[in-house]
Amino acid sequence: SLSAAFWEYLRHLGLHDFPCGLGSWVGTGGQSCGTCGTVQGCHCLSSLQNKSYRNGHGRPRGVQPGQEEAALDEESPEALLELLRDPHSPWALPPDCSAQDRLLREVAVLAPELIHGSKLCRVLRSLRMVDKGVQEVDEGVLKFQQLEELILSANQISRITSANLPRTLKVLELCCNSVGDLQDLCAQPPPELQHLGLGHNRLCGPSQDKFLTEDFWPNLVSLDLSFNNLTDLLGLVSQLSSLQKLRVLLLQGNPLAFIPTYRGFLVDSLPRLSFLDDIHVGHDERQQFQGLAGQPELSGSEARVVVSVGKMKGVPDPSTLQQLEVGSEAPVVTYTYFVTYEF
Questions:
Q1: Which residues have CB under 8 Å from 294's CB, separation 6+?
Q2: CA–CA distance, 120 with 160 (Å, rounded to integer)
Q3: Gene Ontology cellular component (predicted)?
Q4: Which one, 96, 153, 279, 317, has least CB within 10 Å?
């Protein structure tokens, strides 16, 4: 499940081990923030990267006047951060680690109280769990009460239940999974979702087209449906046209993209689009394709693919074989070749 993968991921980050977490190397004095429970002045997780590590008198965090002697054995936050950031440090993360890995390690230094219990879940706004073997988005995800961005690319998710998604979600990325049915996702979808990424999945039309309307996604701005098995261009467009806020659409890699009038029909049918398949839709292009939306017969569900074979190596060329004379008793050898294409 996603919850189990998340806690395992935190365990591997070592957020409770030196130089992170609460220990003899860090002070624990000071008052707590009323919002997140960490030390006063943290401004919560959203601004931890910009917070001041020391107070106005140059003392380490939490050290009051007259307590300097007791704090001599403690490391300052700057020194602990340096151990995380110095590439030669044994505690440094590998160069190819994600920005999320680095942020959580630094949070464990600047506000170690946040990594205890469910406090981290209550303040985390973005969660990226890529290629972690996640198969299920379980109800434990609801503990992320302020989550706005959930990236679950390259996992093994085939169905996702919207009841287990935080209502605060604005970005849901499910690229490179095995999603083939949107019914459970659309039962109670997050009302404020602005981006839905379903590229490289197993969606088939037209059975799934009915779930791509404003009734389910009233605030959707960006939709990625690329590299699925969508075939009904006319039916899909009739549903997408209800998405009043849709500005970015990706459909490349679907069989329907082979239709000769594919791009022109979409551009004219969805006048609010700004980008189609990562290409900007300009005024000139709209003028060029004006009127195609009123000619659906030109966008039928058929496509013609012309394949030309150039040179083939390793096989005899029949045209160069010596022609036998009529009546010759020599055996006749016939060569036959065929080429198979898989779409």
A1: none
A2: 23
A3: cytoplasm
A4: 96
Sorted by where each begins, the domain ranges of the chain are 125-293
User: How many C-beta neighbours within 10 Å does residue 129 have?
Assistant: 19
CATH assignment of 125-293, given 3.40.1360.10, 3.30.559.10, 1.10.1240.10, 3.80.10.10?
A: 3.80.10.10
| Per-residue pLDDT tens listing for the chain (343 residues) | 999 998 888 777 777 777 776 666 765 443 334 334 443 334 444 444 343 333 333 334 444 444 444 444 567 777 777 777 777 777 777 777 777 777 777 777 777 776 766 777 887 888 999 999 999 999 999 998 889 999 999 999 999 999 999 999 999 999 999 999 999 999 999 999 999 999 999 999 788 889 999 999 999 999 999 999 999 999 999 999 999 999 999 999 999 998 889 999 999 999 999 999 999 999 999 999 998 888 877 766 665 678 887 777 887 766 655 555 666 676 777 777 777 877 6
pTM, two decimals, is 0.69
Map residue 151 onto helix, strand or coil.
strand
Amino acid letter, 110: L
**Structure tokens that stand for 265 in this block:** 């029909």
Candidates 29, 39, 38, 31; CA nearest to 67 is 29
Which single residue is written with the structure tokens 């999603």?
A: 179
Burial class (CB in 10 A: 0-12, 13-18, 19+), 152: buried
Which residues have CB under 8 Å from 232's CB, separation 6+? Answer: 205, 206, 209, 256, 301
Rounded CA Rg of the chain: 29
Q: Residue 4 in 3-state DSSP?
A: helix
Sole residue written with tokens 């993968």: 5
Tokens (6 digits) for 113: 């109280």
Phi, psi dihedrals of residue 215, rounded to the nearest 5°: -60, -30
